[in-house]
Structures are given as C-alpha cells and as structure tokens.
Amino acid sequence: MSVQVASAARHVLPLFEPFIITSCPSCPLFLNRNVSSDRIAGMDEGRKISWHGRIISVQPRIKLTRSFDQRSHSYLGYNLRLAGTIGGEQREFAVAVGKAAHARYNFKAGDEVSGEAEPVADQRLETAEFYKASGIEVIAQGPGNSQPAVLSPPFLGVCPDLEVYRQRGHRRLDPRTYEGKCTNCIWGCRMTVEMIIDQWNPSQKRYRFETFCYGPKSCSFYKAGPTRKVPGRKGMSYTEEDWVDEDATSRRGGRTISRVMPIQGTFWLI
C-alpha cells in the first residue's frame, strides 16, 4: 500500500496557491506559498488528518519577532514539505514537526513518511499548512550515507540541531532567489514574522513572511535582495541595513562541525 502511494506521489504536480495576509500585495515578503486559505478553511480545525508522502525538503521552523530595530527568534522545530496524500487529496503540502521528532527520525529528502496532523489554526503564524503532527512513521529511508558528498548548493541531507542555526546566524535572502533555488536547501528558511508596531501597545501587531539563509557565505546561489523595512509607531520606519547580517554571522570563524552535515561530510563554517 505504501509503495503505491509513494509511486503516485512522484507524479503529483505542486498545487500551492499564494494568498495575501497584508495590504501590500506588491511586496514578495508578504506572499504565502502555502495553499489558499479557502482550501484549509474547508478542513475542521482541531481534527487530525492523515497524511502520507515522500519528503521533498526539510528546513528549520523558526519564528522571528520584530519590534522596530529589535528582533528575537523562537526555534520551534522543522517543516517537512512532502509530495503525497493529505486527507485523501494528492498534492504537495507542508507539515510542521517538533525538535524531538526530528531528533528521533533524522528526516531528509527522499524519506517516505506518514502520520497525522491538524490544519494550522492561524495561518499568519506558521509557514506550514499543518502542525501538531503525531503518529509519525518512517516507512522507507531515502538516500543516505551511501550517496556521494554534495558540497555545492543546494545543500541536502539531514538538518542540524536548531542550536547550530542559532550559532551560525542568518543573512536576509531575496524571496525570489529562495523560491527559485533554495526551497530544498537545509540552510534556507522561510520565517513567520510578528511585528510589534508600538512597544507601548504590544497588542498592535502585523504579520508577514521573510526568507533567510544560514548557509556558507561562499554560496553561488545567494542574493541578499533589497533591505527590509520594519514599521513603527506614528508612521515611523526602521530599515535593517547590511551591517545587521554581518554582525549576525560574525561568530562563524573557520571552525568545522562534522555533525552539521553527517551525510555530506564535514562542513566548514565560512
């Protein structure tokens, strides 16, 4: 049964449809690559839905909170993008999983996986369509240590611990470059962003999505894209300049961490 589903999944075309979560549809930062809100709204919130498919990519699940020129991160787990069946429908879909699940199964592209999950209640807060995954089972492993090392982008294999992402720091990544070249790279990340507009009135918030790169600075695919602006109180705006990225990645040095890419060999922090 699992073989038949997996075979069908390889012929499924992407059915992601963008939807807008802000009044600025011209800005690529605000486009959600998930399926339309109408499709998700048709599923019962809180009801577990069975899913089964082949993993296309695994990336970190990180939330970014902005308050004018201040920012902080919440390291929540990982997002699995799969081609397969969700709720009886064959298509591509994304499921958010926790740190413990990834530590146990070491998810990677090519694995055949099944489980249950709930539709995301607030689509502004997740880049995946489904979360609260349970009953996860790895039916078949994808290519592993027998594969030759791939030391050029996009970087594949098993995602490192979330602590590694925190230590490395990120640089902004042009959303068009992310969509075109980085969606299956373990160093790419599409974050949910919660912006506190007025620190004296924290309930005043806006939401959007931003793309970032945790990969090597020598990556030939990398393009920063335009600087990002953060709205503030009374119409003020903060522009996040290049020095912020330089500072965030300044601690890398020339160390090696062999556990970062256990399938591809030692990875240099450059």
Task: Characterize the structure shown.
This protein is α+β, with helices and mostly antiparallel strands and 270 residues long. It folds into 2 domains: 2-61 and 78-140, OB fold (Dihydrolipoamide Acetyltransferase, E2P); 162-268, no CATH class. It is built from 6 helices and 14 strands. Strands 3, 4, 5, 6, 7, 8, 9 and 10 form an 8-stranded mixed sheet that branches.
Short description:
This protein is of the alpha+beta class. It is built from six helices and 14 strands.
Task: Write the SSE topology.
Layout: H1 2-9, E1 19-20, E2 31-32, H2 37-41, E3 49-67, E4 70-86, E5 89-98, H3 99-105, E6 112-119, E7 130-140, H4 162-168, E8 171-172, H5 175-182, E9 188-196, E10 205-213, E11 228-231, E12 237-240, H6 242-248, E13 256-257, E14 267-268
Parallel strand pairs: 3-9
Antiparallel strand pairs: 1-2, 3-4, 3-6, 4-5, 6-7, 8-10, 9-10, 11-12, 13-14
